[in-house]
């Protein structure tokens, strides 16, 4: 008996489907403050996390886990840990740059009804993982792909998301009881929002701006140095 094919036709999306994918990409924003208190429905959250779980991973190792934090007291503890690190971060900038940094509102941890800590289990898949034999960081890159999937799915669901990166690793590890062998990759805040910036907030507020894509594209060899 012939073995059924595991392949399916790779037909392009319809125009409407393609436009929806690009809309999610181009209107995705990092939400820092403007979360509403409305809860995120469990079926919506499950769809978003399922999208994250369908990210590509090296050797199909699926090294990620998602710690979902809903309790307000727990989120307050995380915020205090963030706030200590954020004050240290502010001191690293000088003059107007420090003033601008301090003006950014970073209240998502407390305001967003759902926080998610995304981790990478670097032992998953065993000692030798297909695709990691020469680049041990591929599991971390895979986990970041899961976060990107999660972010785009959240945007498609009308859920705002912010990525908080200002933490002392040991503080977050202690609060969430994360073993030493597990890598913390991202801390995310999710919730409903009324509106999103049309362009990235940091661009609106003059912190930086998006570089032209043509400057990012090299033909054949590295061409980035003067």
From TrEMBL:
The keyword Metal-binding does not apply. InterPro entries: BluB (IPR012825), Nitroreductase (IPR029479), Nitroreductase-like (IPR000415), Nitroreductase/BluB (IPR050627). CDD domains: BluB. GO terms for molecular function: 5,6-dimethylbenzimidazole synthase activity; nucleotide binding; oxidoreductase activity, acting on paired donors, with incorporation or reduction of molecular oxygen. Its EC number is 1.13.11.79. It catalyses: FMNH2 + O2 = dialurate + 5,6-dimethylbenzimidazole + D-erythrose 4-phosphate + H(+). Residues 26-192 form the Nitroreductase domain. GO terms for biological process: cobalamin biosynthetic process. Coiled coil: none annotated. Keywords: Cobalamin biosynthesis, Flavoprotein, FMN, NAD, NADP, Nucleotide-binding, Oxidoreductase. It is an enzyme of class 1 (oxidoreductase). Homooctamer. Belongs to the BluB family. This is 5,6-dimethylbenzimidazole synthase. It comes from Sulfitobacter pontiacus. The lineage of its organism: Bacteria, Pseudomonadati, Pseudomonadota, Alphaproteobacteria, Rhodobacterales.
